[in-house]
Amino acid sequence: MSSLSDLTDVVEAAPRKRCFAPVCDARTRLLLLGSLPGEKSLALQEYYGNRQNRFWFLMSEVIGVELVPLDYAARLKTLLAHGVGLWDVVAEAHRPGSLDSSIRARDDNDLPGLLAGLPNLRTIAFNGGTAAKLGLKVLGERASRYDIVALPSSSPAYTLSYADKALRWRVLQQAIGAAPR
């Protein structure tokens, strides 16, 4: 039977997982923050690359454009054109697998530094509870300068029905000035 210190040694010996660069520009009005990309996303080098993740379907409903059939670069370009940016709260961490509950020894991204370069940002939305919990700590009092939206995770590990997720994600339409569908 292995001890807790043996398990800690195994986790710390594993390579650290690193987030992607932020996708945003001066037009960004809504910043969506996840926790840290999962295994499939890292393998594909794409935000929300796991095809079971509902992120691209949910954002299609928010902005009124079908993102799923587009290639990855076109998806990002379309989000930016609608004032939507992406990044993660965690810069890098040890995490076996893709579950947020497995994140250990993390380093957080410089969210305040990013926000300083987003003059039109009005809303910060967190994709899932872990992103919200960690992100609000990183932002501290700066969070009060923005509309904060905690969303149910788009991950397949979060078992809320798609219809319920979509209903809660549609509140983001106000943040980007889209007409409700």
* Helix percentage range: 25-40%
Distance between the terminal alpha carbons, to the nearest Å?
56 Å
Global mean pLDDT: 87
- Report the principal-axis shape: globular
**Widest β-sheet, arrangement of strands:** 3-2-6-7
**H/E order of the elements?**
HEEHHHEEEHEHEHH
Q: What is the makeup of the main sheet?
A: 4 strands, parallel
Secondary-structure-derived class:
alpha/beta
| Counted beta strands | 7
Oligomer: single chain
Task: Tell me the Rg in angstroms.
Answer: 16 Å
Strand content: 15-25%
Helical stretch tally: 8
Task: List low-pLDDT spans.
Answer: none
3D structure, described in words:
The chain starts with a helix and ends in a 5-residue tail after the last helix. Helix content is 36%, strand content 18%. It has a four-stranded parallel β-sheet with strand order 3-2-6-7. The chain has a three-stranded antiparallel β-sheet with strand order 1-4-5. It has helices spanning 4-13, 39-44, 55-63, 72-81, 111-116, 129-139, 162-169, 172-176; strands at residues 17-18, 30-34, 84-88, 90-94, 104-108, 123-127, 147-151. By secondary structure, the protein is an alpha/beta fold. The chain contains eight helices and seven strands.
For the structure shown, list the relevant keywords.
single chain; 181 residues; alpha/beta; 7 strands; four-stranded parallel β-sheet; three-stranded antiparallel β-sheet
Q: Short description, anyone?
A:
The chain has 181 residues and is an alpha/beta fold. It has helices at 4-13, 39-44, 55-63, 72-81, 111-116, 129-139, 162-169, 172-176; strands spanning 17-18, 30-34, 84-88, 90-94, 104-108, 123-127, 147-151. Helices cover 36% and strands 18% of the residues.
